[in-house]
Amino acid sequence: MPISSNQAVVYFMADFVMQTHWQSLPDSVRREAARSWLNWVACTVGGSRMPSVEAAVRGMLLMGSGNVPVLGRHERLSLPDAALIGSLSASAHTFDDTHLSTITHPTGPVASALMACAYQLGEVGQPVSGEVLLTALAIGIELECRVSCAIAQGGANQGWYMTGLSGGIGAAAAVGYLLKLNREQLVYALGLAAMQASGTRATHGSMAITFVPGIAARDGVVAAYMAAADFSCSPIAIDGRNGLLQVLTSGKDASQIRDGLGTRFEMLNNTYKPYPCGIVIHPAIDACLHLVHQQHVRFQDIERIALHVHPDALNLCWRKLPETVLDAQVSLYHWVAACLVFGQAGVRQGELDALMHAEVRQLQERAHAQPDTTLGSNQAVVIVHLRDGKILQYKTEDVTGSATNPMSDAQLREKFLSLVAPVLGAKRAQVLLDKCLHMQSVNGVAEILQLGAQ
User: Fold this and answer.
1) Alpha helices of 325-408 — where are they, by DSSP H?
2) What average pLDDT is seen over the chain?
3) Please, which residues have CB within 8 angstroms of residue 54's CB and are 6 or more apart in sequence?
4) Which domains, and CATH codes, for the chain?
5) N or C: which end of the chain has fewer CB within 10 A?
C-alpha cells in the first residue's frame, strides 16, 4: 500500500516487515544474517555460565519458571524471561556484535527474542524454519540499526546505552514477522517497543550492563504479543510529538529509518568482535599485538606507554585500574597491558587472575592515553618507551573485525568453537556449529535449542 512521506515512520517499518521474505533479500544480507546468527549462538552459549547470567537466572526463577529452554543452561523459563536471559548471556563476555557507528549490539535482543518465540511456536505445532528465522533476524537487525542511526544523528547524549533504545524495536519487528501480525498490529508492536526504550551507560562495570540488552529482548517479545491481541499504541511513538526521537534528541527526523528502507541495508555495517571487550578498545589491542608479535616488544623492557585513541575509547572505556572482571571488560588500560604481557586478547585475558597479574597492574599504571580527534573509530596509535631509550610504535589503520576489515567465516567458526566447546564439550560444539552453518535446511529452530541447552 503506497504511503506518503509525511506519515509516521512506523508505517514504513511495518510495510518493510510485511513485504520482506528470504528471496527478496540481497545475497549479502542473507550472508550477514547467517553470520550474525552464528556469532550470537557462540556468544550466548559461551556466556551462559558467567556470574551475571547465574544471578539473573536465579532472579527469574524467584518469580516463577516456564517451559522455554535457554542456550547453555538446563533451566526452563517463561517466554519473555527466556528472551531476556538469552540476550543477557550473549553480552556477558562483551563479545557480541557491534554496529560501530552507533555502538549498538544489534543481534542479541533480536535473536534471543526469535529463539524463544520460535520454540514456543514449535510447541503448538507451528515450527519455524531456519530460513524464516534468518529472514526475521535480518528484518529486526535492519530496523534496530536504522533506529540507532536516527538517534545518533539527532545528537542523543552518549550516556544512553543505544542497544536498550533500539533493540526492543528490532525484536518486536522480528517477532511480529514470526507471529504474522497484520499492518496495524505491527504499528502497535513497534510503538509499544519504542515506549519501553531504556538503558544508560552508568551500567558499565556492573552486571547491569548485560541487563540492558536483555530488557530489550524481553520488551520486544511482550510488545509483539500484546499487539497480536490488538493492544494498541499511537503510531507517533517513534517520530511524533513526545515520541522516542523527540524525547532523546529534541527532533523528529526519521529519515535515517525511512530512506532507502528495503533497498539499502544498514545491517551490512554490523561487525563481529575478535576480542571480548568494548569495541572502542580494539584498535589499541591490534596495535599492541603487532608490537609484541612483529616488533618483538617484551613487557619487561617497557618503561611507559603512550596511547592515542579515538575520543570514544576514553569516553566509554576510561577505567584506569579496574578491580573487577566487569570493570576490565570496559577498560582500555587493562587490555593494553594484558596484550603486552600475554601477547593475546581472549576470554582468559579478561579473567580476574589476568587482571590482577602483577606485571599487568604495573603496565596499567604506566599507560597514559589521550583522545585524538584526527583518528577514526577504527584507528589507534600505541607508543612504547623502552628502558634502553628506544621508542617503538604502531598505528592501527583498519582494525580487525571492522566493516572494512571483517572477521572471515573461518575466524567466526574458530570463535564459535572456542566459546561453545568449554560449555558443551568439543563434540556437541561441532554438531551445533554444523547445524548453525546450515540453517536453511533446519525445519524447526527448536533443534538448535535441543543441541545447545543442557
Assistant:
1) 325-329, 332-342, 352-355, 358-366
2) 96
3) none
4) 9-274+414-452 (1.10.4100.10), 279-396 (3.30.1330.120)
5) N
